[in-house]
TrEMBL record:
Class of enzymatic activity (EC top level): oxidoreductase
Pfam family, one: Pyr_redox_2
InterPro entries linked: FAD/NAD-bd_sf (IPR036188), FAD/NAD-binding_dom (IPR023753), FAD/NAD-linked_Rdtase_dimer_sf (IPR016156), Mn/Fe_SOD_N_sf (IPR036324), Pyr_nuc-diS_OxRdtase (IPR001100), Pyr_nucl-diS_OxRdtase_dimer (IPR004099)
The protein, known as: Dihydrolipoyl dehydrogenase
Active site: H445 (proton acceptor)
Organism: Marinobacter flavimaris
The Pyridine nucleotide-disulphide oxidoreductase dimerisation domain, residue ranges: 348-455
Entry keyword Flavoprotein: yes
EC number: 1.8.1.4
Coiled coil, from the record: none
Family that this chain belongs to: Belongs to the class-I pyridine nucleotide-disulfide oxidoreductase family.
GO terms, molecular function: dihydrolipoyl dehydrogenase (NADH) activity; flavin adenine dinucleotide binding; NAD(P)H dehydrogenase (quinone) activity
Keywords, sorted A to Z: FAD, Flavoprotein, NAD, Nucleotide-binding, Oxidoreductase
Amino acid sequence: MEKRTVDVAIIGAGTAGMVAYQRVRKLTDKVVLIEGGHYGTTCARVGCMPSKLLIAAADNAHQMQLGELFGVSAGDIRIDGKRVMERVRSERDRFVASVIDSVEKFPDAHRMEGHARFASPNRLVVDGNVEVEAGRIIIATGSRPNVPGFLKDAKDRLVVNDDIFEWQDLPDSVAVFGPGVIGLELGQALSRLGVRVRMFGVGGSVGPIQDETIRNYALKTFNEEFPLDPDSDVKKVERVEEGVAITFESGNAGATTETFDYLLAATGRRPNVDGLDIQNAGIELDKKGGPLFDPHTLRCGQSHIFIAGDANNSLPLLHEAADEGRIAGDNAGSYPDVRTGLRRTPLAVVFTDPQIATVGLTIHQVDERCRGCFAVGEVSFEDQGRSRVIGKNRGLLRVYGEHGSGLFMGAEMFGPAAEHIAHLLAWSAQRRLTVTEMLEMPFYHPVIEEGLRTALKDLNRNLSIGPAPEEGCTDCGPGV
Ligand SMILES: Cc1cc2nc3c(=O)[nH]c(=O)nc-3n(C[C@H](O)[C@H](O)[C@H](O)COP(=O)(O)OP(=O)(O)OC[C@H]3O[C@@H](n4cnc5c(N)ncnc54)[C@H](O)[C@@H]3O)c2cc1C
Ligand SMILES: NC(=O)c1ccc[n+]([C@@H]2O[C@H](COP(=O)([O-])OP(=O)(O)OC[C@H]3O[C@@H](n4cnc5c(N)ncnc54)[C@H](O)[C@@H]3O)[C@@H](O)[C@H]2O)c1
């Protein structure tokens, strides 16, 4: 067996692995980045980017229909599924190519292709024919779709996110299992592109939403576009001649069978640690077999092994994978000098329409942290000036603050421009601003951020800090 000795071995050349590599490389030249699949990252290949490309097509179709509201008619709107999918793939390929370009700039000696497994705490075997002896190891192996067994009865009509982006044309109908982040984004986009969609969930959750008031609003809104049962009772999934027949309980109608071209499983993701022979790594594992690790150093116990990105199943988001790759890379490079790295305020955005955003602590975490001493401020966007002007007046924002300190703690939003409002809120939370300090910031008119101001004023009043918001506020224009 061929043998190599390095200071640091990184398993997985996704976002976390590539960022880790760049950090390690500043500290040692004896590093190897091992990739068992394709270069290009999950984000660019089958994740963030192609999903946003499909959503962009759907947004355009929807915006054209919205034209009627303004007296602007686009005539008959035609959706050419082949061209939609062609653009998704060609733009996706550009993103993937630019990642591959970066990888190819890494010296050959630093790159190895093959599937790595632990033979011992310091030894990896790659594809069974290369042995890598490493002083430190970073696990950055990402995650993959987790498909419950009964969905496999859909046989060749069962698809996951990876498959959708390879479609040459749009199908007529898709049953989406899992109204989580992927299911909502892809399901709504397909629906807006003319595909018949029905969504099935379990347990009642809608995306990452924790605040019941926002959840109920979002659920009602999505149901105006396509049927979404967040706690469905599915009796049977069967591959039939025309596609997949799904039998489910449907309210008063009782057991109902509906047939779809495809079944999309968007039922969560599982970390790629099960194929690593992790039992040979000499680290402590949790009940599910995932390594126990410190989220501030990414170190597994007191070992020389670090775990970053989706592989650690903690915050499966792109910017978190990059941050974790940076921290793990710095620490593996400078080991045994292991330091706490910068973790940022939690921030997540779901690119539905309206968008969903979560910032800082959830309402349940705020309740626990403040021992019940917190207040909520709220704004509806239904009558918010700018939102009405642009015909995007749907949604709610709820902001949470601590009694006494007046600190802003977190927020959830389902509404227009949530991706932007969420950044203002996350930056405020990270700077540990009080609600009063946030209200001292400038707000232009007429903008959606005026809705944020209304929610913050409501919160300050409920914290017994500010006055009650004035009816028809005089320092701001109409419809704030
Ligand atoms: C449909 C979809 C949409 C998404 N949209 C967003 C979004 O809008 N915003 C956002 O923030 N996040 C989004 N995400 C999440 C984001 O894509 C991930 O959090 C991020 O890509 C994880 O990066 P990573 O480096 O941990 O893993 P990856 O990029 O998956 O890298 C892991 C690498 O490890 C390799 N590997 C695995 N096992 C081995 C082994 N044993 N040996 C060698 N190599 C191995 C894999 O082949 C892979 O290349 C989305 C995800 C999906 C699926
Ligand atoms: N915009 C973004 O940032 C973005 C977009 C896509 C994905 N992601 C990341 O990828 C992760 C994975 O996304 P995901 O949507 O696969 O997972 P998820 O955990 O968000 O959602 C999974 C959903 O499937 C449901 N479910 C589980 N078993 C089911 C069953 N048998 N039948 C019906 N429903 C079932 C769950 O209740 C949940 O609602 C997300 O947590 C997120 O971090 C982020």
